[in-house]
């Protein structure tokens, strides 16, 4: 398309928006201290950060109460090793062996 063939854009809406913003800014009361909303947002951000600090402190306290990882790992290993596994340490029931052996007349590949 040729840029000369593009019709001009009607700018009346943007003009009215500009007029509305200029008149609405003059209608705001001047009695509030400047930066009031900024102070409120900053107080909310500080409150949010304080709650995050408290949450992290609680997690740190819980971690301090836990035992060392090596002690916990040793306990898990000993409990797992104390339970016999029928697949790796031999079967306790011989009738289960038929499910894990090859059929006698199966073809070798």
UniProtKB/TrEMBL annotation:
<dbReference type="GO" id="GO:0007165">
    <property type="term" value="P:signal transduction"/>
</dbReference>
<keyword id="KW-0472">Membrane</keyword>
<feature type="region of interest" description="Disordered">
    <location>
        <begin position="1"/>
        <end position="34"/>
    </location>
</feature>
<dbReference type="GO" id="GO:0005886">
    <property type="term" value="C:plasma membrane"/>
</dbReference>
<dbReference type="InterPro" id="IPR045878">
    <property type="entry name" value="GG1/2"/>
</dbReference>
<protein>
    <submittedName>
        <fullName>Uncharacterized protein</fullName>
    </submittedName>
</protein>
<keyword id="KW-0175">Coiled coil</keyword>
<keyword id="KW-0807">Transducer</keyword>
<feature type="coiled-coil region">
    <location>
        <begin position="39"/>
        <end position="66"/>
    </location>
</feature>
<keyword id="KW-1003">Cell membrane</keyword>
